[in-house]
Amino acid sequence: MRVLAVYRRVLANRDLSRLMFGEFVSSIGDWLYLVALLIVIYEQAADPVVLGIVGAARVLPYILLSIPAGIAADRLDRRLILLVTDVARGLIMVGMAAVVTLGGPVELIVVLAIVATCFSAFFSPAIGSYIPALVRDESELGPANSTWSGLDNLAFVIGPAVAGILIGFGGLTMAFLLNAASFAIVAVVLWGLPSSRAGDRSAARAGSSATAEVSDDPAGDAARLSVRAAIRPITMPLLALTVLNVVGAFVAGGLGVLTVVLAVDVLRSGDAGTGLLNAAVGAGGLLGALVSSALVLRRRLAPPLIIGGLAFAGSVLILGQARSLGAAMLALVVASAGALLVEVIGTTLFQRIVPDEIRGRVIGAMETLSVTAYAAGSFLIPVLAVTLGPDPVLAASGLLVAVSIGIAVPLLGRHAVQRPARDALRERLLHVPVLAGMPPARLEAAMAQLAVIPMAAGQVIIRQGEPADRFYVIAEGSVEVTQHMVDGRPERVLRRMATEDVFGEIGLLSGGRRTATVTALGSGTLLALEGAAFLELVGSGPGLTSRLLDLHRGATPMAATGA
Question: Looking at residues 31-37, what average pLDDT do you find?
Answer without folding.
Answer: 76
